[in-house]
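Structure (tokenized):
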């Protein structure tokens, strides 16, 4: 999921699910243009703007379940929510910028099932903070 390149990935997958217009990755960051990319789009059919890219054909969650490498989602709350609903996210990497907008959709919406996460790292990257969270087992009584 990304607002300004927030990343969520599945541990056992390496492909990237790209969102149109967000393929500008600095060299050495998230494997850049050389990585194979799956594009999740309701309208896009041509991926010639991105090297090694193809539009997902079929159900998103079925494609992710079949994928053998890490899946990294950049820029799509709807893709993240679909993967959350299918219980396909093992870890979250969130790049947070210090901008308060006061509006917008939450990553974890009100009323959703609790997400049991452990912060495994946090580091400053320029003006942003990159935090990594791994799923944990629910604590008894909570």
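Design, position by position:
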């Amino acid at each position: 999921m990304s607002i300004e390149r927030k990343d969520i990935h599945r541990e056992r997958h390496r492909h990237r699910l790209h969102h149109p217009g967000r393929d500008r990755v600095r060299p050495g960051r998230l494997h850049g243009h050389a990585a194979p990319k799956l594009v999740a789009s309701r309208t896009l059919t041509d991926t010639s703007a991105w090297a090694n890219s193809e539009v997902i054909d079929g159900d998103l969650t079925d494609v992710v379940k079949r994928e053998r490498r890490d899946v990294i989602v950049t820029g799509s709350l709807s893709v993240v929510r679909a993967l959350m609903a299918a219980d396909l996210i093992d870890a979250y990497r969130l790049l947070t910028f210090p901008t308060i907008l006061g509006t917008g959709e939450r990553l974890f919406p009100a009323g959703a099932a609790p997400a049991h996460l452990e912060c495994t790292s946090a580091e400053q990257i320029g003006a942003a903070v990159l935090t990594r969270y791994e799923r944990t087992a629910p604590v008894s009584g909570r």
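Reviewer-requested clarification: The first strand starts at residue 7 and ends at 10. Helices lie at 60-66, 77-85.
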